[in-house]
Every structure is written in structure tokens, then in C-alpha cells.
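Troubleshooting log. The previous structure file for this entry was overwritten by mistake, so regenerating from the original sequence record. Sequence copied from the archived sheet and checked twice against the printout by T.R.
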Amino acid sequence: MTRLIQRYPDDVLRDRGNSLQTLLRAIVGQQISVKAADSVWLKLEKVSDGINLETLLNLDIDQLRCAGLSRQKASYIQNIACFYSENDITDDYWNSQSYEKSHRELISIKGVGRWTVEMFAIFYLHEPDIFSSGDIGIQKAISQLYFGNQPQPKESLEKFSERWKPYRSVALWYLWRHIDPEPVVY
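Regenerated output below.
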């Protein structure tokens, strides 16, 4: 990990400071490269004339799909927008409660799963010790850097990640950098 960190001396894990956009970017970024996710995000900005709750609530699935989203991801984005609207969610809302409570609420939104919550915890809540064993990029990076390209079971990765406690979120960010030259920012 030391050599990996030394390769990116001027880069740090950062966020965008907007909880809604963090969740939406996590949905957009599911199972695609950072570069592909950025491309879809730019198209989504054009389709929605700026990404905010009001504009998202006025878009239908087909309009969202014009941005390059699958029907499923478009539906998930609508579900998140509805959750924010129906519950009057603001950024202050998330900052005033525990991670455990945020986790329970986010998981209740159809389409928001464990990985999305983990990304939200890392990039918006700034939880220092999140490890995402289900992340394909993390699996690949650990395999390449530590196990001679031999895939490891998720349970083994969890145990292996103990070495980075209590800063596994930071370790993840550097592991992603090993896989993708573009820094991950949700």
C-alpha cells in the first residue's frame, strides 16, 4: 500500500459535497468504469438541464434513458428523487444522524444496495473505515497487488482488509487508482 500511495502524492480522497448527487453518481457508476460513468453523467446533465431534485422529478424513464442509463438505473434514480422529495431530505439531514441510521434508510430505497450505501458512506458521510468487498475493482486490485492475479473470495478480502483499519476507505480509494487512472469521486 505504501508504494501505491507514493504513486499519487498529490491526490486525496475528496467529495462533491452534495448528498443527492453522490447517490446518483453511485447509481450511474455501478459496474462501469469511471470514464464511462463521467460520460453518462455529462449526458444526464444535458438531459436534465442541470441535475437537481426538481428537474429529476420532472423527467420520465425514457428521458433518463436518453442519457445512456439502463431502464433499471433510470428507475433507481427516480426512486432516489422521490425519496428525497417525499421526506424533505437535505444534506443537513444526513449529517445529523448516525451511519447506521443512514444505512437503514438508504437501503429502503428500491435500487440502493449495499455497494451504493458504501459509496455514499465513503464519499459523502466520510466514514473512515468502509470496505467494499463486493466491488469488482477492489477485488481486481487486491488480486493484482497482493495475490499474483489470483482471485480471492469476498470473505478472504474482508479478513485481508483488517490490515488497513481504521482507514479502509482511504485504502479503497488508492486501490481504485491502481485499476483506473481517473480518480473516483462520487
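The CA atoms of residues 3 and 120 lie 27 Å apart. Archived copy saved in two places this time.
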